[in-house]
Structures are given as structure tokens and as C-alpha cells.
TrEMBL record:
Domain Major facilitator superfamily (MFS) profile span(s) in chain numbering: 220-404
Any one GO molecular function term: transmembrane transporter activity
Record protein name field: Putative MFS family arabinose efflux permease
Domain of life: Bacteria
Organism: Melaminivora alkalimesophila
Length: 404
């Protein structure tokens, strides 16, 4: 006879794993704000070439993109728990190397530290997929993804506060204290990750797996990956360009920083209810709403260059990213069988964060070339393509149901 406690244990384990993932996301997600907010300043301080000052931030994004496939391979070989623990150790090492680079006034060493942080970033981005493994009922996967993404809201508060509290902690080496703190946050995440008890990932395909190229050609994957790439890529591109555009059009650095803060809050705040919206209205509808809001942010930006235009566009961009990216992640879960999930998730993240890396390298140059208005006009066709694919997928699904 099954006892009540035994019957409730699977649900208790789900709640425990999701709680650990939220906490780990809160700590691990704090590293990028530290790197992004200080990387350019440290680059200016250490680099003899002014144009190379933002290289540490771009190398972090590149390191993240290049780490998605090796990280997924490790997860399949040794399991998510141990791969995530290795990622946290790499996060500790990256913070220590970056701080050491500052102490030695060595720009190359500092860049190495931010690049190494990319592997930890790839693992942290994978926590949302671990959330889908943590729940037995596939109907609850979107809510699980949304719940873990709430950790990003906490990280958006922790990261900037760490910078404020620790940037001058070591007067002889400005900003080094913040990177030591980045290492400490990764250390705090390590026991949480080791406490995870997730289902084992299949180590090999057992007769029902398809080649990755075949999966990548399916309409379901193309739609999910395109929505993810457009949502995240445009958000990263516009978020990087917006502060420079604001300052270039007469607004203060403090006003630009406040706009980014509201943008980050808008990115993660809706995670409290995004999963419920997906359960109520469906994955495609919420993803499409996110893309529409991203387009609306571009339209608002084109209406004027006032402070409220910039701030309003950044808030719409943040909410649109939340709906679009979480919706696209939920759509991706329809594309693979259990034995295929690691490689499909890795390919998706490689495409998404490879796009982000390219955006990071090119945003400043494109802003200088075509201007803020040109950037916002140029992103509208990309949103239109993603929406068209979603509409075509919904129509195909409706016809398939009608034919059945």
C-alpha cells in the first residue's frame, strides 16, 4: 500500500528541483550583468586601443555561443548535475582570472577571464531545459520554464548591486572586487547544483533517434529556433545600442542606465505569469504576442527621440523578449524525442547565442552607420518573417487536424 508521503514524493522532488534551479539561476544569472556593466570600463582602463574596450564583453558572448555544444555533450555524458557543477567551477575560475588580469593590468588576461565565463553562461542558459526534465507532466513544462526564468529577475537585482557594493572594495585595483564577487557567487551556486536530482539523460540514441540535420529541417524546429533567434538576437542588439543612442541624442548616462534597469525588470518580471498565459492561450499565441511587442518597441522608438520614447521602447522590448523567448523555448520541446533532446537543445542555443555574439560585435558599428532609426526600421522585417512562420505552422496544424 502506498503511503501519503510516498505518493507525494514525486511532486515534492519536482518542487525541490525547481526551487534549486531558481536559486542557481539567481546566482549564475548575476554574472553577465557584472561582466556587461564593467567589461567596457575595465577594457578602457587596460587596453591601449580605444576601439578594443568592449572586446571583453563581446568575447563573453562568443564564449557562451561556442560553449553550448560542448556543454550539451558533457550533460549527455556525465549528466546535467555534474556538468552544471563543472560550469560553476568554471564561473569561479573566470572571475578569479579576470580579477587577476586587473591586478596585473593585463588586458589579454582579463579577456581570457570573461571568455571563460561563457561556459558557465551556457550552463546557466540550459537551466530552463533542466526545468522541463524536472516535471513529469509535459503540460506543466511551460510553467516550469517560466518559474526558473524568475531567477533572472533576482539575478538582475543581484548583479548590479554587487557592482555597486564591490567595485571600489580594493582601491589599488578598481573593479577587481566585483570579479572576485562573481567567483564567490559561482561558489555559492555549487552546492545547490550538486543537490539536484534530475532524471538521467539518455547517453545514446536507442533506435528512435533521428539525425540532427533531419530534425533541423522540420517545420517545428525551424519555427521554434527562428522565434528564439529573433526574440533574443533583437533584444540583445537593441539593448546594447540603446544606451549609446540615448547619450548620442542628448540624454544623460544616468538616464540611460535607468532605462536599461527598467528594461531588465521588464524582461524577467512577466515570468511570474508567462507560463499561465501559455497554458491558457497556447505556445504559439504567446510567442507571437512577444514578437508583436518587440515590433511595437521599434515603432515607438521611431516616433521620437525623447526620454519616454527610449524608456517605453526598452520596456516593450523586455516584455516582448520574455513572451517570445519563453514561448519559443516551450515550442522547442515539441521538436524532439527524449533521446534527442540534448543535441537539439544545444543546436538551438548555439543558433540563439551565436546570433547574440554577432549582435554584440556589430551593434556599435551599425548604430554609427545607419543610426538608431535605421536599426529599428531594419528589425521589423525580421519580426515579420518569424510571425509568418508561426502563422504558417498554425495553419498547417489546423489543416492536419481537419484532415484527421
Amino acid at each position: 500500500m502506498t503511503t501519503p508521503s510516498a505518493a507525494s514524493s514525486p511532486a515534492s522532488l519536482e518542487r525541490r528541483n525547481l526551487g534549486l534551479l531558481v536559486a542557481a539561476q539567481s546566482l549564475g544569472g548575476a554574472s553577465p550583468p557584472i561582466i556587461i556593466s564593467l567589461g567596457g570600463l575595465v577594457g578602457q582602463m587596460l587596453s591601449s586601443t580605444p576601439t578594443a574596450s568592449t572586446l571583453p564583453v563581446s568575447l563573453y558572448q562568443l564564449g557562451l555561443a561556442l560553449s553550448t555544444l560542448p556543454a550539451a555533450w558533457l550533460m549527455q555524458r556525465i549528466g546535467r548535475r555534474m556538468a552544471y557543477a563543472l560550469g560553476a567551477l568554471m564561473g569561479m575560475l573566470s572571475g578569479l582570472v579576470a580579477a587577476w588580469g586587473i591586478a596585473r593590468s593585463d588586458f589579454v588576461l582579463f579577456c581570457l577571464g570573461t571568455t571563460l565565463a561563457g561556459f558557465y553562461g551556457a550552463c546557466v542558459q540550459s537551466y530552463r531545459f533542466a526545468a522541463t526534465d524536472a516535471v513529469a507532466d509535459t503540460a506543466h513544462q511551460a510553467k516550469a520554464i517560466s518559474r526558473v526564468m524568475v531567477g533572472g529577475l533576482v539575478a538582475a537585482i543581484i548583479g548590479p548591486q554587487v557592482v555597486i557594493w564591490t567595485r571600489d572594495a580594493l582601491p589599488a585595483t578598481p573593479f577587481a572586487g566585483s570579479f572576485y564577487s562573481q567567483a564567490a557567487l559561482a561558489l555559492l551556486a555549487l552546492p545547490l547544483l550538486l543537490a539536484l536530482r534530475l532524471p538521467a539523460m539518455p547517453r545514446k540514441v536507442e533506435g528512435h533517434g533521428r539525425p540532427l540535420a533531419e530534425i533541423a529541417r522540420t517545420p517545428q524546429f525551424i519555427i521554434a529556433a527562428t522565434a528564439g533567434v529573433v526574440s533574443y538576437g533583437l533584444m540583445a542588439f537593441l539593448m546594447t545600442a540603446a544606451p549609446m543612442a540615448m547619450v548620442g541624442h542628448g540624454h544623460g548616462v544616468g538616464e540611460a542606465a535607468l532605462g536599461i534597469q527598467w528594461h531588465v525588470l521588464a524582461m524577467f518580471g512577466p515570468s511570474f505569469f508567462t507560463g499561465h498565459l501559455i497554458a491558457r492561450f497556447g505556445k504559439r499565441a504567446v510567442t507571437a504576442l512577444g514578437l508583436v511587442l518587440i515590433a511595437a518597441s521599434g515603432v515607438l522608438a521611431l516616433l521620437g527621440l525623447g526620454l519616454l520614447h527610449f524608456w517605453g521602447a526598452l520596456v516593450l522590448l523586455g516584455v516582448g523578449w520574455n513572451f517570445g523567448f519563453i514561448g519559443a523555448t516551450a515550442l522547442l520541446t515539441e521538436c524532439y524525442r527524449p533521446a534527442e533532446r540534448a543535441k537539439v537543445q544545444a543546436l538551438n542555443d548555439f543558433l540563439v547565442f551565436g546570433t547574440v555574439a554577432v549582435a554584440s560585435f556589430g551593434s556599435g558599428q551599425l548604430l554609427h552607420t545607419v543610426g538608431w532609426n535605421g536599426i529599428n526600421v531594419g528589425m521589423l522585417p525580421l519580426v515579420a518573417v518569424a510571425l509568418a512562420l508561426l502563422a504558417a505552422g498554425a495553419l498547417r496544424e489546423r489543416r492536419a487536424r481537419a484532415g484527421a
